Records
---
Amino acid sequence: MAWDALAAPGVVCAPSPADTARFGVEVHRLTVGPGEVRGTELVDLVESSTADVLVARYDVARQDVPALLASTSRAVLPAGALTYWEKPVVGGDPPTRTDVVPSGDLDRAAAEAAVRSVVRASFTAYGNHYTADPLLDPDAALAGYEEWATGTVRRSPDDVLVQMLDGEPVGVATLAEGDDHVEVLLAGLVPSAQGRGLYGDLLAAVEDRAAAAGAARLVISTQVQNVRVQRAWARRGLRPFAAVETVHLVRRAALAAATARG
C-alpha cells in the first residue's frame, strides 16, 4: 500500500471494488492514520460496515487500536506487518550487469507479457496479507498482482521498469511519485536471477529514475518476514522508518463457513 495513503490522518474506510470482484466477497479497506481516534468512532465504523472482509491497517506503534478492533463482533485475523524503508536519493549509479528500461520503451504486448511473467514467477510464494484469510483465494491474489502491474504498463508505462538479462525479462519494479519521494510499489526478480547480485542493478535503476524525477528520497516496503530483500536494501543504504500492521476483520459466520469448507 502506498505510503502517502497510510500517512493520511484520521480513519478512512472505503470499498475495494477490485478486491470484491476478484474474490467474490465484499472487501473494504480501513486505514487508521496519525492523530487522535475516538474509540467509539472506530468501533461504530467497523460494526456498521457491510463488507465481508475489512482489511485494516495501522501503525504498529498505535497500541490503542488492537483492543478496539478485538472488541467488535468480527473475527480479527493477523495478516502480517509491512516494514517501510527509505534513503536519500543520490542517483548516478547505473546498472552494471543488466539493462533496466521503462516498459514504454518496449512493444506494448511484449512489455505486458514480460511484466506478467516476472510478477507471477517472483510472487508465487510471497506471503502477502491475503494468504492469512480463508475467505480469499490465494491464486486470485496472485492474479491480482499480475493485473495491477500490467494495468500500470497500460496507464503509465514509464512508471514500470523492466530488467533484462541476455534479452530475457528477469525483474520488474513499479513506481509512484509522492509529495517528496518516489515509491516502489512492487518489485521482484524471477527465481533464476535471485542470489546473483542482480537485484542491486534494479535498485540502482530505481534510484536513478527517482533522481531524474527530482525526488528527495526513495521509499519501498515489504512484508516484515521478507528478510532477504531487506538485507539487500540495507546493502544499498536504505534504512527502516515505519512499520504498519495489517489485520483482516471478518464476519464470523463467513469465516466459519470458509473454514468448514476446508
---
Amino acid sequence: MKDYRDVKTFDELIEFEHGKIGSASRIKYEESAQMFIVSEMLKAARKAANLTQEQLAEKAGTKKSYISKLENGKGNIQLSTLIRIFEQGLNKKIGLTFL
C-alpha cells in the first residue's frame, strides 16, 4: 500500500501516482486525462443539442460507432475531425489554448 502522508497538494499527488512531468507514465496519464475531458465535452454538447449519436454522426459526416468511441474515451481523434464534429455537427466553435 502506498504512503500518502507526505502528499500535500494535487500536483504532488499526480507526481506521486504518475511520475514527474515528461516521464512515460505521466505522459500516458495526461493524454488519458485530456481524452476524458474531450469525450465528456462532446457528450455534454451532443446531449444539450438533443441529438443522438447517430444524428450527430450523420451531421458531421462520420459513423455512430466513431462518435460512441470518442464519447467513451476509446478513440483517437484528429484535430480536423474534432473540429468538424463540433462545428458541423453541433454548431459550436472550438478554441485552443497552448500552455
---
Amino acid sequence: MIDTILAAVPVYGLWIVTVTTFLSCLALPVPASLVMLTAGAFVAAGDLPALWTGLLAWIGAVAGDQAGFALGRGGGRLLVRLSQGGKAASLMARARELSDRYGGPSVFLSRWLLSPLGPYMNFVTGAAGMAWPRFAVWGLAGEAVWVAIYIGLGFAFAGQIAAVATLAADFSGTLAAGAVTLGLGLWLRAALKADRGLRK
C-alpha cells in the first residue's frame, strides 16, 4: 500500500499530500510523513510547487485535526469504548493525561514531536471539552512545524528519502513510546502512594 501511495505522489501530487495528511490525523494507517518527505523531494526537483505543497499539506492536517476534535466532542464515550485494549488504548490514555496536565502545549507537541499521539490527542481533547479556539490555535502552530520539518527534510535530502524516513520514524516512535512509559510510571507511582495512604 505504501508503494502505491508513493507512486501516486508524482501523478496526483498535491491531492495525495492533502488527503494523506488529513487521514493520518484521524488515526488511519497512512504514511503521511513519508508522503511529505517524498513531496519535498519532488519540490527540490522542481516537479511540485513549494508553496502549494506546504500549504495543502498543512490544510489537510488541520482539517484532519478539526474532524478528530469534532468526533471526540460528539462521541467521547463511544471513542473510549472503541479503543479498549491494545496500542490504541495506551495511546488514548497517554493523550488524555497530557491533555489534562498540559492542555495547549501538549496539543502543539503532539502535532510534530510526539506525532503518534496526535490523532488520539484530537479525540481526547474534543471528548474532554477543551475550548475549540485553544485547540485550534495550538494545533495550527503544531501542524505548521510538522509540515515544515518533513517537507524541508525531503527537500534537503532528496537523494536519501528512505534513510531519512526510517530515521524520522524511529525517532518519533521512540519519543512516543517514552512518553507512554513515563505516563504509566507516573500513574503507577500515584496509585502506589494512594494505596499506602489508604493503608495508613
